[in-house]
Design goal:
Number of strands: 29
Number of helices: 7
Helix content: 10-25%
Mean pLDDT: 86
Shape: globular
Structural class: alpha+beta
């Protein structure tokens, strides 16, 4: 080893040591991850007391809380990221119209407005939102953005749009194409809570454009190889497993894996929340564009064979529940570090949303009617996704909110996940809720409602349609379950 190589390795080690031993709160973070806003914990079927099951969820680790300063001129400043935003995107526009508008845009006395990157726009996301996709009607809608700080609109159903047609523009262009060779940009949908790659060409009535100004360093990683199987991002203060876990597991197993992990002498690993996980996506990389996963080459990522028979890279679980639909706790958010496949009419299995998309997968089972794709783009549905644990950052352990404080919209429509169909994978220590409800056992939601409670305790069942049923914990068929009050 040459003296130059030894010096380079020593410098890298010192930088990594400083990054791993200096508390994130004491660092000046150029890429501060704003908390998701999710404060309740969930099983695969209901809201639960945090720590009673599925330990290590998003709500148990609180990060920098969303904080905005109103500037009283149609703009707000994000006190976490330092970015200034217009508060109202106004009418929908095409991508070309947005870029043309910016050429002469003067607002609140500033002329340096621009389209945000996908990481800048994603900083505004709140996963306290409720996804109304595919249901007949939903009351008390909850979008995935702070409506006190920003103007928000759902799709205009009177003009032929879907309720969820609230896609927002970014400047992040995919380095490949989707669907039928369509060029696209990564945008976020604040109605249904997903990152997808949307066509650059005119799409329906267009997209919302929320302009931003400020330092463009936000969203740029500063990775350091710690030479011990971990990688630290100095920009965020987070330290990551350099390799993934090497095998697909269900959501409960993913949480348990990270909670039990000891690596490099550290045992405080956790499954990342969805915004932490999205922070390490490299949107300049993709399987077809660069023959790699959408992540920095410092990381190693397992290969899989996807539904189209291609060599590909996996979905990765987050600790964040994607709340919505008739079974609001049944899915968790993930990032596709490989192709985000869909089974499209006349096209078969193709990349429909791009490497770096954020969608959601079932925590425990794929309903039988979704095994060949789900939704209008036929999204691939997987139960067994991969894991890359995280440690550090500006987070603290918290207890999470009382389940009784969660009120969700009432949903009318056919169930999106029939309880008696599909392929299941049972997490350690959990009941298999893929069984039909009439097999001699109380409903899983009733069992979950009494988890950590004593016989005779008051309880609340969170039903699939979003309503609550109060009851008392009583033994039923040797199992403590919540029995509704007469």
């Amino acid at each position: 080893m040459t003296a130059h190589t030894r010096l380079a390795l020593l410098s890298t080690f010192i930088i990594a040591l400083l990054a791993s031993t200096t508390p994130a709160s004491a660092q000046t973070l150029s890429y501060k991850i704003v908390d998701t806003g999710q404060t309740h914990c969930f099983s695969e079927s209901t809201v639960i007391v945090c720590g009673s099951a599925y330990n290590g969820q998003d709500a148990q680790y609180a990060g920098a809380q969303p904080s905005y300063q109103a500037n009283n001129d149609g703009t707000v400043t994000d006190l976490n990221t330092g970015l200034m935003w217009i508060t109202d995107p106004d009418d929908k526009v095409t991508y070309a119209e947005a870029t043309e508008l910016l050429a002469t845009y003067n607002y609140a006395g500033y002329t340096d407005w621009r389209l945000p990157s996908i990481k800048e726009l994603y900083s505004l996301t709140l996963f306290s939102g409720f996804d109304p996709s595919g249901e007949a009607s939903v009351d008390s809608l909850i979008p995935f953005i702070d409506v006190d700080a920003f103007a928000f609109e759902y799709g205009d159903e009177s003009s032929g749009e879907r309720l969820i047609d609230s896609q927002w523009l970014t400047s992040t262009i995919y380095n490949d194409t989707v669907m039928n060779n369509q060029s696209c940009f990564f945008g976020f949908n604040f109605a249904d809570g997903r990152i997808k790659c949307y066509p650059l060409e005119t799409r329906g009535n267009g997209y919302f454009a929320l302009f931003v100004r400020g330092e463009s360093a936000y969203g740029q990683n500063e990775f350091v190889d710690n030479l011990d199987g971990t990688v630290t991002d100095i920009a965020t203060g987070l330290t990551w497993m350099q390799a993934d876990n090497g095998i697909g597991v269900n959501w409960g197993e993913a949480l348990a894996y990270c909670e039990a992990l000891t690596l490099n002498g550290m045992d405080d690993w956790r499954l990342p929340n969805i915004k932490e996980l999205q922070s390490i996506v490299d949107y300049s990389r993709s399987p077809d564009g660069t023959d790699s996963a959408a992540i920095d080459p410092l990381f190693s990522t397992s290969r899989i064979t996807n539904e189209a028979g291609q060599s590909d890279y996996p979905h990765f679980w987050s600790s964040t529940t994607h709340i919505g639909g008739m079974d609001p706790a049944s899915a968790a958010a993930y990032i596709a570090f490989g192709r985000a496949l869909g089974n499209m009419d006349n096209l078969g299995w193709v990349d429909v949303h791009g490497a770096g998309a954020q969608r959601s997968d079932p925590k425990l089972m794929v309903p039988a009617d979704q095994t060949n794709g789900f939704g209008p783009q036929g999204d691939a549905r997987r139960v067994d996704n991969y894991v890359r644990c995280v440690q550090g950052g500006d987070v603290v352990l918290v207890e999470g909110d009382d389940p009784s404080t969660l009120t969700l919209p009432t949903v009318a429509g056919p169930p999106s996940s029939p309880p008696d169909q599909g392929q299941s994978a049972q997490p350690p220590g959990q009941s298999n809720t893929g069984q039909p409800p009439n097999q001699g056992q109380p409903p899983q939601a009733a069992i979950d409602a009494c988890m950590s409670l004593a016989e005779g305790a008051s309880c609340t069942i969170w039903t699939p349609n979003g309503s609550n049923i109060d009851g008392v914990c009583r033994p039923l068929d040797s199992t403590l379950a919540c029995t509704p009050n007469p």
